[in-house]
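Appendix C: a fully annotated inverse folding record. The material below is reproduced so that readers can follow the format used throughout the book. The structure is listed first as tokens, followed by the designed sequence.
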């Protein structure tokens, strides 16, 4: 059966841990100049309806380093769901590429693709989740702090795609995750109920006072106040989120030695000051680098470990 990676609700804690371990070992090999050609001759398609630097380039580099190649498709050109139905698009693209990474607005579109595709579909960010980001971020924290279990993470911002995926990823590793947000900007109800169903033992902690939230944190994270697709809310959100800017005074409340992460791109001076972003606690550049290593592990997992013989290329045309 083809496995997809469209949401962290689709994998379990052991699989998440295996992905991080594999990413670490591929990273070590890379450091020693070794790039195992695990995916020689394979093609990763990328369909992006939103802009990207990190996700696009790290996926293209990842498949290339593993011996395969990438095919980038601008969402506007292929017109998935516009020029033809998502189902037809999924069935046809499955004949040409071995896996497809998709960045779009609605999670439902990605789910629909996964339903009709006969190749692995990877969520490269939707309005509701960013699973590749979250697991790569946990790799960064594990490297920096030596472990994950028992740590406290604080996400200062709204309950957006990155926050939701980080909350779910944290639950896999016994991390206490706190969302510090203005009232009215918590997680959507649908996420809260899905999380509760899959993690009945783990509370989804919300704190409206950013100072109280950050106290004792091992990792402080923030993201833009208005995500892609929320451009018309940029101005209105600025006023609401002003008290939630991560500056040196806020970060000083975290545990000594705490680290700062941001998925990037950042709006400097809004959600985070230059002083924090460029300061000694900030690991945003190695964090961005880990997207590459995590995604190499993900591609190997999807295209080697989870690809049974029956799902090979012939199965696409003659199921
Ligand atoms: N963090 C992240 O996903 O960056 P891009 O939007 O540049 O891909
Ligand atoms: N929340 C941001 C993340 C960008 C990587 C957005 O969706 O725009």
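Designed amino acids, in order:
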């Amino acid at each position: 059966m083809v496995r997809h990676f469209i949401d962290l609700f689709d994998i379990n804690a052991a699989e998440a841990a295996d992905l991080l371990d594999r990413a670490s070992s591929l990273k070590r090999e890379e450091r020693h100049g070794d790039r195992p050609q695990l995916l020689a001759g394979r093609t990763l398609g990328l369909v992006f309806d939103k802009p990207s630097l990190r996700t696009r380039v790290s996926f293209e580099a990842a498949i290339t380093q593993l011996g395969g190649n990438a095919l980038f498709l601008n969402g506007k050109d292929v017109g998935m769901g516009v020029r033809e139905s998502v189902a037809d698009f999924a069935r046809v693209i499955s004949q040409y590429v071995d896996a497809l990474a998709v960045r779009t607005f609605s999670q439902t579109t990605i789910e629909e693709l996964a339903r009709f595709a006969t190749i692995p579909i990877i969520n490269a960010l939707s309005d509701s989740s960013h699973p590749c980001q979250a697991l790569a971020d946990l790799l960064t924290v594990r490297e920096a702090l030596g472990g994950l279990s028992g740590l406290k993470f604080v996400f200062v911002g709204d309950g957006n795609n990155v926050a939701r995926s980080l909350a779910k990823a944290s639950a896999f590793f016994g991390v206490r995750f706190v969302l510090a947000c203005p009232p009215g900007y918590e997680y959507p109800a649908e996420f809260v109920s899905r999380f509760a169903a899959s993690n009945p033992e783990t509370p989804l902690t919300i704190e409206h006072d950013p100072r109280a939230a950050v106290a004792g944190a091992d990792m402080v994270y923030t993201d833009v106040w208005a995500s892609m697709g929320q451009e018309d809310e940029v101005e209105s959100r600025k006023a609401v989120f002003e008290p939630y800017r991560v500056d040196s005074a806020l970060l000083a409340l975290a545990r000594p030695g705490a680290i700062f992460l941001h998925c990037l791109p950042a709006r400097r001076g809004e959600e985070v000051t230059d002083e924090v972003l460029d300061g000694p606690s900030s690991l945003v550049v190695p964090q961005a680098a880990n997207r590459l290593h995590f995604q190499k592990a993900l591609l190997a997992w999807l295209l080697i470990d989870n690809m049974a013989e029956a799902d090979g290329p012939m199965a696409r045309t003659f199921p």
